[in-house]
Amino acid sequence: MTTPLTPEPTTLIRNAAFVIAWDATTRKHAYMPGADIAWRGGVLTFVGRGYDGPADRVIDGAGLMVIPGLVNIHCHPSSEPMNKGLTDEVGSPGLYNSSLYEYLPIFRGDLSGVTACVRVALAELLLSGVTTVADLSIAHPGWLDLLGESGMRVVVAPMFRSARWFTRNGHLVEYEWDEKAGVKAMEEAFALIERAEQHPSGRLSGMAVPAQIDTCTPQLLKDSHAEARRRGIPWQIHAAQSVVEFHEITRRHGLTPIQWLDRLGTLGPGTIIGHGIFLDDHPRTRWSTDIDLGLLADSGTTVAHCPTVFARRGIMLRDLGRYRRRGVNVGLGTDTYPHNMLEEMRLAAYAARLMAETPRALTSSDLFEAATVNGAAALGRDDIGRLAPGCRADLVMIDITYPGMRPARDPVRSLIYAACDRAIRSVVVDGQEVVRDGKCLTIDYAAAAAELEEAQKRMIAGVPERDWAHRPLEAISPPTFLTI
Question: Which residues have C-beta within 8 Å of that of residue 26, sequence separation ≥ 6?
């Protein structure tokens, strides 16, 4: 006789002060005061008032706001934490202030450093309420298990390309091509994605990422896009991310980066453009056309907006509100440190208003949608980024009695514009608590940060050798103060 399976326990948050619930009628988030949320296993079973079902664990919701877990669609956990204190104020003057071509290749850690980078980044993401992240990295040993141990929901996005970029003089970017290596790397990426989808954690999925529009052959772009469509997974590419790249693509093809992707047939639902800043109507790259924004909107393409990394160079998308009003699906990412999604949201709001020169450029609801349901849609999912029965139990509990949240007349605004991650009490992914009382339960954040510091010291020692001009670090990234 078969032994009956023991029912999974049910957890209930009773009478939460606020729940950001999904209104199926309006297809919008809505405040729901005095609400209950229940989940069993990794699935939400109840979002509403007056829950009268079974509960094995009950959490008193007094003083809590419950929001859906945030969805981050563009992140580089395996490298960016290493750059703290190094690239905060750098940008190549001869390359339109981008940091990509001169500095990105010289700040690279060893394998131990990569592991520390990933742990630091994922801990920071969890602590800021992110439950789903797209990890755009170069494949590295132990990657999948490292992600699985974190407790996060991760879209594994191994990058591949046909060429590497470099500069010999700080003002000219050159490309070294190896098309066969690009094809091989693409095949390896899809094989790794298959392994991710079979990972025992059950929380890993895949995304195809030809790394940059200017480092991939047209055939690699078309083939990877077709394979992503066949597999039903998202396809993301860095494009329209620098003035250098814009000029390179227009020189090669007589089309803007967005128009070139359209010509190749790679725009559309399921496609994510990493950054998408330099369109044909951007003041720094004004082209002879004015169609890029419409191509993005009408094709259903998503833009991954990551303001912090560009704000450091004096660069910004113009502007997030304009993209949304035209109908472009925009999600958010943390392209660089700090991996704090709430701080990224705050900057996204302020940058949009600065670029548009009006406080009406972007609403807080627009911003919250970008960090939740828009990102989920970009990943082809309607079961994350919202709180509704049947969705995954990915949620964040906010302490609205925290002084930085008060007054809590509009608690989402208090969270984004004032308290940020300091008010987070608990984070749940797939029904499992991964953050409690401001501490990450799955990653030793402090130990990872200590390892990262040692790895950065090792990496710094080799900077002059990797730099085109063999400059000491102090000449590339001078310290804030002289040492006396």
Answer: none
Instruction: Tell me, yes or no, whether 242 and 271 share the same domain.
Output: yes
Range of the structural domain that residue 33 is part of: 10-68+389-440
H or E segment to which residue 237 belongs? strand 235-239
Do 159 and 277 have their domain in common?
yes
For residues 161 and 23, membership in a common domain is answered with no
**The pLDDT of residue 7:** 65
Last-in-domain residue among 378, 397, 428: 378
Q: Splitting the chain (484 residues) into consecutive groups of 10 residues, what average pLDDT does each group show?
A: 62 98 96 98 97 96 98 97 94 94 90 94 98 97 96 98 96 97 98 97 98 98 98 98 98 98 98 98 96 98 98 96 97 97 98 96 96 98 98 98 96 97 98 96 97 95 94 94 92
Give the H or E element holding residue 155: strand 153-160
Largest CA distance in the chain: 80
Can you tell me the distance from the alpha carbon of 379 to that of 187, in angstroms, rounded to the nearest whole number? Answer: 21
| pTM for this entry | 0.96
Question: Which residue in this structure is represented by tokens 């990943």?
Answer: 379
Asked whether the CA dihedral 186, 188, 190, 196 is positive or negative, the reply is negative
Q: Is 270 left (phi over 0), alpha (psi -120 to 50) or beta?
A: left
In 99-178, alpha helices (H): 111-127, 143-150
Could you tell me the CATH number of the domain that includes residue 436?
2.30.40.10
* Number of structural domains found in the chain: 2
Residue 8: what pLDDT? 83
